[in-house]
């Protein structure tokens, strides 16, 4: 049952569900200005065709003016583009009846970044922030027939130069790949200026859609559904609708559910300009929204109809999910907690850090978003962190997270440097924050806001004061500016517009280099990789919540072939170095490989082993975090995806190929996990469960050699408590079955729960010290509805078997698997291809 309440000068109370005919459409016209654009350099005559959304580099590439910066060593050859000013023009046709409307608005969802827009020679708006939408009333400048729309983009490098030059020191934007750090002065995606996993492409363009919108009387500017309380019995919802009225007349707001039932209404006298109408309703017995793996993602749809003087003026639709999220960050017996409670239940967060999917944002398609976020779900993620050096993602991203059960940790777009604090900069940021908080706050997936990435920990621990020569006076000014932005402005916007949502000033709050900080809040642990510490340090470097950790690998070899030539296939070739942005990159991969694997001489084999290495190391970390719950309650890997084809920390490469790391993440984040840990002479076998219910199962232990011979078998019943991590078996590493040779065998663990089996292998020696036999992996394939079902077999143990589909497009359900002697391993290749030639590679073949 729905109960409705209203506020205002006039109100009506609806008890129950009232049905109403709503076939009337609002008298609103929309026109997408997508085609017919032309691009030229300011002051030049040559023009190039464009379709918006677009970007200058992309259009110049399509016109053959510049090479693809992602290929070979082309990155440097396109840097001149960012130093020029560019003009987009469009001549669009407008029918006479458009001019009969009271107002015609020109709407830009995204302008990157410094732009001046004119209609028929009249300037209508000026943009200076990539992260907000712009709108202007342009009716007085329009005419029936042909109209000219012009957008002039000024180089963000030149616009920022005077702002940069007013300081007698550099800001510590060390990822800005230029001598003069312009990025901090510009409200533009920081990663575009270069990062340690991406190129420097300082873009310009109309990167999101452009529309004309005509309406009469008024329009809905914002439709906010605010649950006031949620339980399994009822959800109390307040609706706040921002109405822009052109008239001083009576307005009525009607709220409908998905079944077209009128559930609430309010009416009042509207003032010209901004008005807020409020109404409340109750949903009895709501179906709760749960993160992936914990339940269903129930979403409720509602519609707001605005009537002015009895006529339908505008309409908006919105979805919400009924859930409660509490971020518990408070002192406790162990230090300072950091964990999430969803619908009252503490949950371990398993997830990824997400960066933009391209340096040229308009190239990212709807299908790309679907594929990437489905991949996160399939890898058993329940959280995705939108990292603060990228962008506030588009609406489709958050809608998909709503549907897939991916809680969103949302950073504001600040990363790894201090920022200016002048009034103009703070005012610009305030508009950005208000726009994005209002845009995103309705999403069921939104869990929390975070002010920045690594600025606080950088200021306190990275030696910026000495490296950049800051005087004590300058340091005081800079930190006061930090507080004004991250401890005053942003939390005030969140409190005002998204009351009740958790705000965190900076991630991480603790420093990985100080062991006592592991007990405090969240942590970005880079002892592995930057600190060169062994992978095993993940077992002891356990924070309360791990919000970043990672290790690099090369992309899949078929991806490398797309951006390079055979002459480039060497670890330190010029092209490979250009596509490696970490200052310690390839040499660090090599150093870690030497510790655990035999280093192949062949480059293709090296690429393959680099992926196995990355997956192995990251699996140690993910499992360690889960074993140590509830002290540790989160594991967010760095990183899910790439912005360009390169060696990086990603689980999925730029071309969408899933690396070994992706599949180890998928296994490490299974709802029930078998995990091992060694301490001195002891092997501890853990069972970790994220499930809300208790389970019973059977654990079978088998000591086998690589030919398949079983030396000993042990079986026991196990109880698996909900949301638990427990040691279920402890063995002496030195207590091996008679005849079993540690370098020639392994311990196979099989857990059976509810008729389903899960397996894990424990090796008593590092991979480089295993005496793996030579063997061939056979593939038999069967075409099925989803693509190809592949069955892998081998006469002897084949470790980390990678199945390659060549140039065929598709997605493996599993890969980089162990194939035991005489035991078939089945995986699915989802594809629309009619014929695919598969091949395999395993560790022994790289010796």
TrEMBL record:
Annotated ranges, domain Glycoside hydrolase family 2 immunoglobulin-like beta-sandwich: 220-323
EC number: 3.2.1.25
PROSITE patterns, sorted: PROKAR_LIPOPROTEIN
Subcellular location: Lysosome; Secreted
Domain Beta-mannosidase-like galactose-binding positions: 37-208
GO biological process, any: carbohydrate metabolic process
InterPro entries: Beta-gal/glucu_dom_sf, Beta-mannosidase-like_N2, Beta-mannosidase_GH2, Beta-mannosidase_Ig, Galactose-bd-like_sf, GH, Glyco_hydro_2_cat, Ig-like_fold
GO molecular function, one term: beta-mannosidase activity
Record's keyword annotation contains Chaperone: no
Pathway terms, separated by semicolons: Glycan metabolism; N-glycan degradation
Residue ranges occupied by any Beta-mannosidase Ig-fold domain in the UniProt entry: 775-834
One cellular-component annotation, GO: extracellular region
Boundaries of every Glycoside hydrolase family 2 catalytic domain copy: 340-458
Name of the protein described by the UniProt record: Beta-mannosidase
């Amino acid at each position: 049952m729905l109960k409705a309440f209203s506020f205002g000068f006039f109100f009506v109370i609806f008890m129950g569900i009232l049905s109403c005919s709503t076939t009337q459409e609002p008298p609103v016209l929309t026109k997408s200005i997508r085609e017919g654009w032309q691009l030229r350099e300011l002051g030049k005559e040559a023009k190039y065709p464009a379709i918006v959304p677009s970007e200058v580099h992309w259009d110049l590439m399509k016109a053959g003016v510049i090479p693809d910066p992602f290929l070979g060593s082309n990155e440097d050859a396109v840097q001149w583009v960012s130093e020029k000013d560019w003009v987009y023009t469009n001549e669009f046709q407008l029918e006479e009846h458009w001019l009969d409307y009271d107002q015609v608005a020109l709407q830009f969802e995204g302008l990157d970044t410094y732009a001046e827009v004119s209609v028929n020679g009249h300037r209508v708006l000026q943009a200076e922030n990539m992260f907000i939408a712009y709108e202007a009333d342009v009716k007085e400048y329009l005419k029936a027939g042909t109209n000219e729309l012009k957008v002039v983009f000024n180089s963000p490098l030149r616009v920022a130069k005077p702002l940069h030059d007013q300081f007698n020191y550099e800001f510590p934007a060390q990822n800005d790949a230029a001598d003069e750090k312009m990025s901090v002065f510009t409200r533009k995606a920081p990663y575009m200026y270069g990062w340690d996993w991406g190129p420097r492409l300082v873009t310009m363009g109309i990167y999101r859609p452009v529309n004309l919108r005509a309406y009469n009387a008024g329009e809905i500017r914002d439709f906010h559904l605010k649950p006031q309380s949620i339980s399994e019995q009822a959800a109390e919802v307040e609706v706040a609708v921002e109405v822009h009225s052109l008239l001083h007349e009576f307005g009525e707001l009607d709220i409908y559910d998905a079944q077209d039932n009128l559930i609430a209404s309010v009416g009042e006298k509207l003032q010209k300009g901004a008005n807020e109408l409020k109404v409340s309703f109750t949903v009895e017995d709501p179906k709760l929204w749960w993160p992936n793996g914990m339940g269903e993602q129930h979403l409720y749809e509602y519609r707001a109809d605005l009537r002015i003087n009895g006529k339908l003026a505008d309409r908006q639709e919105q979805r919400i999910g009924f859930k409660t999220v509490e971020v518990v960050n408070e002192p406790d017996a162990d230090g300072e907690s950091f964990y999430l409670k969803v619908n009252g239940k503490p949950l371990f967060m398993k997830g990824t850090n997400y960066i933009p999917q391209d340096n040229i944002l308009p190239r990212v398609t709807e299908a790309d978003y679907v594929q990437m976020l489905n991949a996160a779900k399939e890898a058993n993620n329940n959280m995705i962190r939108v990292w603060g050096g990228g962008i506030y993602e588009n609406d489709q991203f958050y809608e998909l997270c709503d549907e897939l059960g991916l809680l969103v940790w949302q950073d504001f777009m600040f990363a790894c440097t201090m920022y200016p604090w002048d009034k103009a900069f703070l005012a610009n940021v305030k508009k950005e924050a208000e726009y994005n908080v209002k845009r995103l706050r309705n999403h069921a997936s939104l869990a929390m806001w975070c002010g920045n990435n690594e600025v606080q920990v950088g200021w306190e621990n990275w030696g910026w004061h000495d490296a950049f020569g800051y005087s004590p006076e300058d340091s005081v000014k800079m930190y006061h500016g930090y507080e004004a932005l991250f401890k005053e402005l942003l939390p005030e916007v969140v409190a005002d517009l998204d009351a009740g949502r958790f705000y965190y000033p900076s991630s991480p709050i603790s420093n990985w280099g100080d062991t006592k900080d592991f007990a405090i809040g969240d942590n970005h642990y880079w002892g592995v990789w930057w600190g060169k510490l062994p992978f095993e340090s993940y077992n002891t470097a356990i924070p309360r919540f791990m919000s970043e950790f990672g290790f690099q690998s090369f992309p899949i070899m078929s991806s490398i072939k797309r951006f390079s030539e055979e002459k480039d296939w060497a670890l330190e070739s010029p092209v490979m170095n250009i596509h490696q942005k970490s200052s310690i990159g390839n040499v660090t991969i090599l150093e870690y490989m030497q510790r655990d694997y035999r280093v192949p001489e062949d480059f293709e084999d090296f690429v393959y082993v680099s992926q196995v290495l990355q997956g192995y190391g990251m699996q140690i970390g993910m499992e360690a975090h889960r074993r140590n719950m509830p002290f540790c309650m989160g594991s967010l890997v760095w990183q899910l995806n790439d912005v360009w084809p390169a060696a990086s920390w990603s689980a999925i490469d730029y071309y969408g190929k899933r690396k070994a790391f992706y599949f180890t993440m998928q296994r490490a984040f299974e709802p029930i996990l078998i995990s091992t840990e060694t301490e001195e002479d002891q092997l501890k076998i853990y069972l970790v469960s994220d499930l809300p219910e208790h389970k019973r199962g059977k654990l079978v232990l088998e000591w086998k050699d690589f030919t398949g011979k079983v030396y000993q078998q042990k079986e026991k019943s196990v109880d698996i408590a909900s949301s638990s991590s427990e040691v279920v078996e402890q063995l002496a590493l030195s207590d091996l079955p008679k005849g079993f040779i540690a370098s020639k065998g392994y311990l196979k663990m099989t857990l059976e729960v509810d008729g389903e089996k899960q397996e894990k292998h424990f090796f008593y020696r590092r991979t480089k010290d295993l005496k793996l036999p030579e063997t061939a992996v056979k593939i038999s394939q069967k075409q099925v509805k989803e693509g190809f079902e592949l069955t892998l077999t081998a006469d002897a143990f084949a470790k980390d078997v990678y199945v390659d589909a060549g140039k065929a497009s598709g997605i493996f359900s599993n890969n980089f698997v162990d194939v035991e002697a005489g035991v078939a391993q089945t995986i699915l290749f989802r594809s629309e291809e009619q014929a695919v030639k598969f091949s395999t590679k395993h560790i022994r073949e790289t010796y």
